[in-house]
Amino acid sequence: MKRIFLLLVSASVASVSCSGGGSSSVGKPGTKGELIPREKTKSFVAERPYGMVAIPAGSFVAGLADQDPTNTPEKAALKTVTVSSFFMDEAETTNAEYRVFINYVRDSIARTMLAEAAGEGGEGKGRGTSIGDYAYLAQKEENLTPYQEYLEGQGGREDGYDPSKKLDWKVPLHWNTNKYPDVEYAEVLESMYLPASSRVGNERILDVSKLKYNYKWGDMDVAIADNQRGVNYLKSESIAIYPDTTVWVKDFHFAYNEPLFEQYFWHKAYKDYPVVGVTWDQARAYCNFRTKLKTDYNESLKRKKQRPMIFRLPTEVEWEYAARGGMQNATYPWGGPYLMDDRGCYLANFKPKRGNYMEDEKKGTYTYTAPVKKFKKNGFGLYDMAGNVAEWTESAYNNSSPAFSSTLNPSTKDKADDKRSVRGGSWKDVGYALMTGARDWERKDSARSYIGFRTVQDIPEAAVKPRRVSR
Fold first, then answer.
1. Residues 9-28: pLDDT tens digits?
2. Where in this protein does the record put region Disordered (predicted)?
């Protein structure tokens, strides 16, 4: 009798634990005593993010299959591997796109400082007419839900989110000194600029060293070691995100590149050019920002869906698979074996001849980088997978990684080594570096005038598979 009683208790506990997913539940689960899931069976179609293309799953022979003129140790041994489907940016991340990230961090820091200075707020109309308008939303909202009150009492969620520190983004910021609403506002905003003693020509310049992006990411190695996603799983990062614009001078001694140092990142003429001077960590911070942007949007619409798939850097093998555009043994993203088409036009932005950085001397264009999407896309619909700027990948670099890595979604994650794989070649490289199987690396804390990045997003295996783009 005691055994039967224990079984009944365990069964009741199981029914409670299974019904705590957010929807209300009345009575026991099941239909007519049968275990039948309540979820509707519908095909899941992954939402394609703006500016991305779907890369279908497939297998291919990774490595330099046809030629290796230098016989370097970077050459990867030929190996057949399988890659799952994913979305990938159709072009490299541009200056304009990265500036959205910069402006978001700038505005969030300014709003946080204004909210701290505002305290409990004032009698403003919420239009930015006084510093009181910038108080935290919790200071303005009177009717909090029981869950919001609980989180506020606990000091926030496990991931660091504190509901009492939620910013009011509807109130406009004023960066024009003539529109500062009051003295307290001016004091906060001016603290974000270089002090007068550090200015050149008395020009008001934003102190970019203060533009730090704080975020958390999950360490899967810790989760495996602890056998759970506990408190040690989340790692905090604080990354200074402003690009190193001095790379145009540092990378090339005895060369006059000062105009690019002065203008490349911020001038509107370069808005569609790939961002450079960004480290591996900064590129990963940008990926986290894209994920946060979509997550916040979904929450604002109160969507009852799972959080969006994260944005990240591609693995080295994912990048090579995407660069080949669906072709096996492709020397270049367009196939090959030549760097020019049948009209004698170069197919990528690179250094075609010794001392000559221009692909078209008559037009005199593209001495350095080129605007994205100026050259033909490959079979998957991706631009600039060869030349223009080389691209960071998620993978740690190792000469022997192709030999020991898996044949299913290969990836290397060596935390002890700061080398990261860089792919694609750049505007300053010769044709060999543009080959789809050519490997290169850079230290993850280094910024270069010839390295940029693009992002990817996973497609769930259960989703309706994207079709291969026809050539």
1. 344 333 333 434 555 666 67
2. 400-422
- The CATH homologous superfamily of the domain defined by 40-94+243-471: paralog of FGE (formylglycine-generating enzyme) (3.90.1580.10)
Distance CA 144, CA 227 (A): 36
CB 287 within 8 A of CB 312: yes
List beta partners, residue 443: 419
Helix (H, G, I), strand (E, B) or coil at 298: helix
**Beta partners for 82?**
59, 408
The model's confidence at residue 323, banded by pLDDT at 50, 70 and 90, is very high
Q: Considering only CA atoms, which of 412, 400, 247, 403 is closest in space to residue 319?
A: 412
Report d(CA 214, CA 325) in Å as an integer.
36
- All structural domains of the chain with their residue ranges: 40-94+243-471, 98-192
Query: For all residues of the chain together, what is the average pLDDT?
Result: 84
CB neighbour list of residue 316: distance below 8 Å, 6 or more residues apart: 393, 394, 395, 397, 401, 410, 411, 412, 421, 423, 439
3-class DSSP state for residue 86?
strand
Angle between helical axes of 95-118 and 280-300 (0-180°, round to 10): 70
Q: Considering the entire predicted model, what is its pTM? A: 0.87
The total number of residues written for the chain in this structure: 471
d(CA 337, CA 347): 12
Q: What are the backbone angles phi and psi of residue 209, rounded to the nearest 5°?
A: -65, -20
pLDDT of residue 127: 78
For residue range 105-157, list pLDDT tens digits in order.
999 999 999 999 988 766 556 678 889 899 988 766 656 677 666 666 665 55
Can you name the residues that pair with 274 across neighbouring β-strands?
A: 94
> At which residue do the structure tokens 């909090």 appear?
144
**Selection from 64, 51, 52, 48 nearest residue 324 by Cα:** 64
| Placement of tokens 């203060």 in the chain | 210
